Amino acid sequence: MTDYVIVGAGSAGCVLANRLSADPAVSVVLLEAGGPDRSPFIHMPAGYRQLMLSGNVDWGYQTVPQKHCHGRTFHWPRGKVLGGSSSVNGMVYIRGHASDYDGWAQMGNRGWSYSDVLPYFKRAENWELGEDEFHGGDGPLHTSRVQEFHPLARAWMDAGVQAGYPRNPDVNASSQEGFGPLDSTITKGRRASTAYCYLRPALARPNLKVITHALASRVVIEGGRAVGVEYVRKGKTEIIRADAEVILAGGAINSPQLLQLSGVGDGDHLRSVGIRAVHDLPGVGQNLSDHVATEIQQECTQPISLLKELKPVNVAKSLVRYALTRGGPIAHPGIQTVGFVKSRPDLVAPDIQYHFIMIMYGEHGRTLHKSHGYQPLINVQRPESVGTVLIRSKDPTKHPEIDPNYLAAEDDVRVLRDGIKICRDVLAQKAFDPYRGTEISPGRDVRTDAQIDDYVRQSAHTQYHPVGTCKMGIDPMAVVDASLRVRGLSGLRVIDASIMPKMVSANTNAATIMIAEKGADMIRGGREGYAESVA
């Protein structure tokens, strides 16, 4: 028996394990389906491409064929390891626009406005430039910024200004709009995952137990209360009971899957796969949202892209430099700058985000173009298309059916079309004159709206940001309330990216960590002295 059982040692679960076990009077067990984060490719920032290539710490998810994207099936990488996707992602640290969180509050989620959540972003953060109005200076999560910008990164920021957009020195501060530098979850040349920043410092606590290679198969529910978790490890099924609460932190895929396996979800759907409905909650697995993206790929007339760093002799030199100094190309993932723009001037906030990549690649980095170039990734900040995550088997080892329903909403296509047009204008500015080569894709002949739309549908891909499948709210499809308790059950919460009622206008890792910080505070009751004890 333990007080708290947390399912999932990912971006949220590691935060929760640290914060809850900070109280020596409670006991915490953290279950993780993956293994320890021992791979050196996890810890070196440039190693995430190798993680993608190997799939060794990945769940290996695939979507169903997407009818609005020429029937293509999408690969959905998700981390299966301590730290979850924070151990395999691109280390981008962007929080989103203030209106995202104000929108959550306006949907009936009291306590989730921007002014409510900013203190939790700050509590989490240890920004290398120090604490200020928007940043924390002594939290567990290390964030940093590259000090010397690549010439192509400088050209991107300069071209944005030349095209009429603001230069933004900090997209996580008072304004998001404009072109500027990117903050990353990196410290001293090392990935700052939640496993490294939150879990590792807590492992020595006697009241925290971490069990890896433990696949949760159901939440044990008795008399309307969650009392434990059943899991499979080394072929053996075990149950660990929770005296206080069970907390699901598996993310937008695993959390709704586990609820459904436990008989919590839409009753008709559960019965259709042979599961007895314990609690009818129709919103479980609904409201799936993800950032969908495309790109422009353009050759560079000078051999200065990151392609040169991948030549065997340069890789060897970089590895030696990294081993000796924790510096050089391996100490950064290769994304230094971003851009946020509005497709229409009347919008409250930017609806297009650009990640400027200083190399041309395809298939999630599995293929590299042989010529020097760059590719701005273009994604829809607030997609309207929503999909589902639904189990099709009682077997917990069988992946659920994932249908993001990409580009079902015509406005998502329109935003990407506008994003391509705006991006082309930026790349046509004077700052790129020394570097601008042939546009590889979509290609100079793709000009009409119909041609661009077809390119969007055949090239679109995930930005690795699934959210929303256990959404927070007060409407009939809400799964959790504003305290992240599963509606209609006691002793059970969901605290991860799945609770977002609407997608945030940013990469989702920072927001997920904030959710876990706030969720831990809710569990502890926000009682006096807690903030000081975990600062």
TrEMBL record:
<dbReference type="InterPro" id="IPR036188">
    <property type="entry name" value="FAD/NAD-bd_sf"/>
</dbReference>
<dbReference type="Pfam" id="PF05199">
    <property type="entry name" value="GMC_oxred_C"/>
</dbReference>
<dbReference type="Pfam" id="PF00732">
    <property type="entry name" value="GMC_oxred_N"/>
</dbReference>
<dbReference type="GO" id="GO:0008812">
    <property type="term" value="F:choline dehydrogenase activity"/>
</dbReference>
<keyword id="KW-0274">FAD</keyword>
<keyword id="KW-0285">Flavoprotein</keyword>
<protein>
    <submittedName>
        <fullName>Choline dehydrogenase</fullName>
        <ecNumber>1.1.99.1</ecNumber>
    </submittedName>
</protein>
<comment type="similarity">
    <text>Belongs to the GMC oxidoreductase family.</text>
</comment>
<dbReference type="InterPro" id="IPR007867">
    <property type="entry name" value="GMC_OxRtase_C"/>
</dbReference>
<feature type="domain" description="Glucose-methanol-choline oxidoreductase N-terminal">
    <location>
        <begin position="251"/>
        <end position="265"/>
    </location>
</feature>
<keyword id="KW-0560">Oxidoreductase</keyword>
<dbReference type="InterPro" id="IPR000172">
    <property type="entry name" value="GMC_OxRdtase_N"/>
</dbReference>
<feature type="domain" description="Glucose-methanol-choline oxidoreductase N-terminal">
    <location>
        <begin position="79"/>
        <end position="102"/>
    </location>
</feature>
<dbReference type="InterPro" id="IPR012132">
    <property type="entry name" value="GMC_OxRdtase"/>
</dbReference>
